[in-house]
Design goal:
Layout: E1 27-28, H1 42-48, E2 66-67, E3 80-88, E4 99-101, E5 104-108, E6 114-118, E7 124-128, E8 150-152, E9 155-159, E10 164-169, E11 175-180, E12 195-197, E13 200-203, E14 215-220, E15 226-231, H2 249-253, H3 263-266, E16 268-269, E17 276-279, E18 284-288, E19 292-293, H4 297-300, E20 312-317, E21 323-328, E22 343-348, E23 357-362, E24 368-373, E25 379-384, E26 391-394, E27 400-402, E28 413-415, E29 429-431, E30 436-443, E31 446-448, H5 477-486, E32 488-495, E33 500-507, E34 515-518, E35 522-526, E36 531-536, E37 542-547, E38 557-561, E39 564-571, H6 575-581, E40 594-601, H7 627-640, H8 642-645, H9 667-674, H10 693-717
Parallel strand pairs: 2-34
Antiparallel strand pairs: 1-7, 3-40, 4-5, 5-6, 6-7, 8-9, 9-10, 10-11, 12-13, 13-14, 14-15, 16-19, 17-18, 18-20, 20-21, 22-23, 23-24, 24-25, 26-27, 28-31, 29-30, 30-32, 32-33, 34-35, 35-36, 36-37, 38-39, 39-40
Helix pairs in contact: 7-10, 9-10
C-alpha cells in the first residue's frame, strides 16, 4: 500500500500564526440593546436550556445538542433564509457554538476573542480581546481556535489560549477576574469551552503533542479560586500530588506506568481539551482524556503498560473531584486516539425488560461507538462505526483486539483511522425522539512508523512517529489528486441500542461540521465546502442547504425570540485539517473573515463574499540545491513546518503559502523569519532551537522546488 497518505496528520502549530490585532480592553457598542444579561444559575441550565435558549455548550447538561423547538421543521425548513450575519475579526479557524441567553448571544473566535451580540438582529453589544501574545500560537497543536464560553450569574467565562481562565461582566464585557490555570513556561493551551456547575467553572487544557501533563480543574465562579484538580497522568515520582486529596493513581493508575521513558520528563500527556459533562442524576463530572506524550508508547513508556488515564472516559465527584470510575477506550494509546470527543448522556431501553438505563455514549477517534453505564462506567456495548484496520473488534470488557502490525516499529503501517480520527472535535448529537445519535464521521488514513531521531524533550512537536517516511524530494501534482480521493466523510445516524447505522449520508470530503438535532425532526450539519444542510432526522433525506461561503465545522445552535426560531452557526477556515491538508480545498473554501450566520424562516439577508485577494501563485525565485539537499529539506519540513504550512508545502490559504512567498526567495529574509524570529509578534517564533542553519536553507530549497514543480505541472496542463 502506498504511504503518500503519511502527509495527513493531526497538526501541531509550529508555523506562522497571524491574527487580528489585539485590543487592550472590551469595546462596548455606543447604544447597548436594553436587555437582561446572563441571569443564569445551575437550575436554569438544567431546566431551560435546549429550548428557547442555548445556555451551555452542548445545549443541555446531558450535551445531546437536541432542541425541543419545532418552529422550524420538515414542512417549512425549505423556506429558511439568512436573518443576519456578523463578522468575527479573524481569518483563522472558528469552532465556537454560540451561547444564547436573555436575548444576547455570546460567541468566540480565534485567539479567544469574545463577542456579545443581539441575538435577534446581530447588532454588536461588546467585544473583549484578552490580548494574547501571538507567539503563544506555536504551542497550539491545531490552530488558535476556541469553542465557546459559559455563562453564570451575570458573568461570561472564557478559556484563553495562553492558559488563562477569565470571567467577564455579561453586560459590559469588562474583566471581573483572571486566573492562570497552567504553567505558562510549558506548552499548554486552552481551546475548549468551560462548563459551569453549582458555582464552579470547569476547564481543562491542551498540549499533549508538545510534552505536558494533563488535568481538569474546578474554580470558584465568583472569585476564580481553585477548588479541586484531577490529574490524568501520575506524578513522575508516583507520589501523591500535595494539591490533590484523591487522584486514584496509588490504587489504580501507577501500576499501568513504568518507571522510565519520556513520560517522566515530558509529562505523559492526557490533556482534557474538550468533552466535560455534568451528570445531574449522579452528581458527577464525566470527561474525556486525550492522547499520550509522545504518541509512540515505545518511547513514552517502554514497559508497555495501559497508561491510565490516557484515552479514557473518567468520572469524578462534582463537588470534590474525587475519582469514581473510568473506562479506557484505547489502552496504551499509540496513535493519538483521544477520548476527548463529545460525550452524550441519555436514557436508553437497556435495563431489565427494556427499562430505561442512564448511559454515557461516545464515538472517539479510534472508530468504535461506546455505550457505558453512566453511574458505574460498566461497558455495555461497542461497535465500529467506520472502516478500520488497527483492531478487529472489542472483547467482552470493551478492550480493543489489536492488529499486531498496528503497534508500528521500523516498518510503516498505513492505518485507519489516522490521528485525525474517525470522529474529531466536531460534536455529535442525540435525538430522544428518533433514539439516534448523529456522528460526523470520516476516513483519513495515516502511515505510522517509528521515528529513529526521537529525543525526549518537553518543548517541540515530537510524537515519536516519523511522518516523513516515504516522502519524495518533490511530490508530483498527481499526488495531491490522489490524496483528495482518499479522504472521505459521512453523517451517520447510529442506533445505540441495536449498535448499527440507521442511515448514512456520504460527503465529498472529510472534516465536516458538528451536528444539531431538533424536535422538528431535523438534523443540521455544516460541511467542509461551506454548505450548511438540513436533513430529515428519521430518514436522512436532504431538505435544505445554503452555502455560507467559508468552512462550516462548528456545532450549530438554535433558539427562539418572540416566538420565532433561529438556527445559527459560526464559520471560518482553519483548525488542524485545514492547516495540514486543506490545500486540497483552498479553491472551493477560500480564506475569508469568519462570521456568525443566523437563519430564520423567510429570512432575506445575504452572506458577503470573501474579501481577500486571490493568492499570487507564482514562484518568486529560481530553484536551487541538489537532490540530497532537497530531500533533507523535505524531512525537516515535515517535522517542523507541515502541520501548519501544509503537506507538500501546499498551504490551505489559512496561513501564507510559502511556495509563493517573497520571503522564500530571499535567503536573508528567510533566515530572519525562521531562525531569528523576526515575525514572532505574528506568531512565527524562532525555530533555531529545532532547525540548524543548514536545515533551514534546505527547507527553503525544498519549498522552492515544490513551487516550481507545481508551476511546471500547471504550464503542462495548459
Amino acid at each position: 500500500m502506498t504511504h503518500w497518505r503519511s502527509f495527513i496528520i493531526a497538526g501541531g502549530a509550529l508555523a506562522v500564526l497571524a491574527g487580528c490585532a489585539p485590543k487592550e480592553k472590551a469595546e462596548v457598542a455606543e447604544k447597548p440593546v436594553e436587555t437582561a444579561f446572563a441571569a443564569v444559575d445551575t437550575d436554569r441550565i438544567r431546566t431551560a436550556s435546549g429550548g428557547a435558549e442555548w445556555l451551555t455548550y452542548g445545549g443541555t447538561y446531558d450535551e445531546q445538542r437536541y432542541s425541543t423547538l419545532t418552529g422550524i421543521n420538515t414542512e417549512n425548513v425549505g423556506r429558511l433564509g439568512v436573518a443576519w450575519t456578523q463578522d468575527l475579526a479573524t481569518n483563522r479557524g472558528v469552532e465556537a457554538t454560540p451561547i444564547v441567553v436573555d436575548g444576547v448571544m455570546y460567541v468566540t473566535s480565534a485567539w479567544s476573542v469574545v463577542y456579545a451580540l443581539d441575538a435577534k438582529t446581530g447588532e454588536s453589544l461588546w467585544t473583549y480581546d484578552p490580548d494574547v501574545d501571538r507567539a503563544v500560537g506555536v504551542k497550539a497543536c491545531c490552530d488558535v481556535v476556541n469553542r465557546g464560553v459559559a455563562v453564570l450569574d451575570g458573568k461570561v467565562y472564557v478559556g484563553v489560549i495562553d492558559g488563562r481562565l477569565e470571567a467577564l461582566d455579561a453586560e459590559t464585557g469588562a474583566r471581573v477576574w483572571s486566573t492562570v490555570t497552567v504553567d505558562q513556561a510549558k506548552p499548554y493551551t486552552i481551546t475548549g469551552a468551560p462548563r459551569v456547575v453549582n458555582g464552579k467553572v470547569l476547564i481543562g487544557n491542551g498540549g499533549a503533542e508538545l510534552g505536558v501533563r494533563g488535568y481538569l480543574t474546578a474554580y470558584d465562579a465568583q472569585t476564580g479560586k481553585k477548588l479541586w484538580r484531577f490529574y490524568t497522568v501520575p506524578n513522575p515520582s508516583k507520589q501523591p500530588d500535595l494539591e490533590v486529596s484523591d487522584s486514584a493513581f496509588e490504587a489504580i493508575g501507577n501500576v499501568t506506568w513504568g518507571d522510565e521513558g519520556a513520560w517522566v520528563t515530558d509529562g505523559g500527556g492526557g490533556t482534557v481539551w474538550d468533552s466535560i459533562v455534568y451528570d445531574t442524576v449522579n452528581d458527577q463530572i464525566i470527561f474525556g482524556v486525550g492522547n499520550g506524550s509522545p504518541w509512540n508508547r515505545t518511547f513514552r513508556d517502554p514497559s508497555g503498560g495501559d497508561n491510565l488515564f490516557l484515552s479514557s472516559i473518567v468520572a469524578v465527584d462534582a463537588s470534590t473531584g474525587t475519582y469514581k470510575w473510568h473506562f479506557q477506550t484505547t489502552p496504551g494509546d499509540n496513535w493519538d486516539y483521544t477520548a476527548t470527543q463529545s460525550i452524550i448522556l441519555a436514557d436508553l431501553p437497556l435495563g431489565e425488560n427494556g427499562a430505561p438505563r442512564r448511559v454515557a455514549m461516545q464515538a472517539p477517534k479510534n472508530g468504535f461507538f461506546y455505550v457505558l453505564d453512566a453511574a458505574t462506567g460498566e461497558f455495555l456495548s461497542g461497535d465500529a462505526f467506520v472502516p478500520m484496520n488497527w483492531a478487529t473488534g472489542l472483547d467482552e470488557n470493551g478492550r480493543p483486539i489489536e492488529v499486531p502490525e498496528a503497534r508500528y516499529g521500523k516498518e510503516p503501517y498505513e492505518q485507519l483511522p489516522g490521528p485525525l480520527g474517525a470522529h474529531n472535535w466536531q460534536p455529535m448529537a442525540y435525538n430522544p425522539d428518533t433514539q439516534l445519535a448523529y456522528i460526523p464521521a470520516q476516513e483519513i488514513p495515516q502511515a505510522y512508523v517509528e521515528d529513529p531521531r526521537f529525543v525526549s524533550k518537553a518543548v517541540g512537536w515530537n510524537t515519536g512517529a516519523d511522518f516523513s517516511a516515504g516522502i519524495p524530494p518533490i511530490a508530483p501534482p498527481d499526488v495531491t489528486r490522489f490524496l483528495r480521493s482518499t479522504l472521505k466523510g459521512r453523517l451517520i445516524a447510529w442506533d445505540p441500542v441495536k449498535a448499527e447505522p440507521r442511515w448514512t449520508v456520504e460527503h465529498e470530503n472529510a472534516w465536516n461540521g458538528g451536528v444539531l438535532t431538533t424536535a422538528g425532526n431535523l438534523v443540521f450539519q455544516g460541511k467542509l465546502n461551506g454548505d450548511f444542510v438540513a436533513y430529515n432526522a428519521a430518514t436522512g433525506e436532504k431538505l435544505w442547504s445554503q452555502n455560507v461561503k467559508s468552512g462550516a465545522a462548528s456545532g450549530p445552535g438554535t433558539y427562539s425570540i418572540d416566538g420565532e426560531q433561529y438556527v445559527t452557526i459560526t464559520t471560518g477556515w482553519g483548525s488542524a485539517f485545514a492547516l495540514t491538508a486543506g490545500y486540497a480545498y483552498d479553491e472551493t473554501v477560500p480564506s475569508t473573515v469568519g462570521k456568525v450566520v443566523t437563519f430564520k424562516i423567510g429570512g432575506t439577508g445575504m452572506i458577503a463574499d470573501a474579501e481577500f485577494a486571490p493568492i499570487d501563485r507564482t514562484v518568486k525565485a529560481d530553484a536551487f540545491g541538489d537532490e540530497a539537499m532537497i530531500t533533507r529539506g523535505a524531512v525537516a519540513f515535515s517535522r517542523n513546518c507541515m502541520v501548519c504550512h501544509g503537506a507538500l508545502a501546499a498551504s490551505s490559504g489559512v496561513l501564507p503559502d510559502l511556495r509563493w512567498s517573497a520571503i522564500t526567495g530571499n535567503a536573508e529574509a528567510w533566515k530572519g523569519v525562521v531562525l531569528d524570529g523576526n515575525l514572532a509578534a505574528n506568531g512565527m517564533v524562532s525555530f533555531a532551537e529545532f532547525v540548524s542553519p543548514e536545515e533551514s536553507e534546505a527547507i527553503r530549497a525544498y519549498v522552492l522546488a515544490q513551487g516550481h514543480a507545481m508551476t511546471d505541472a500547471a504550464d503542462g496542463e495548459e
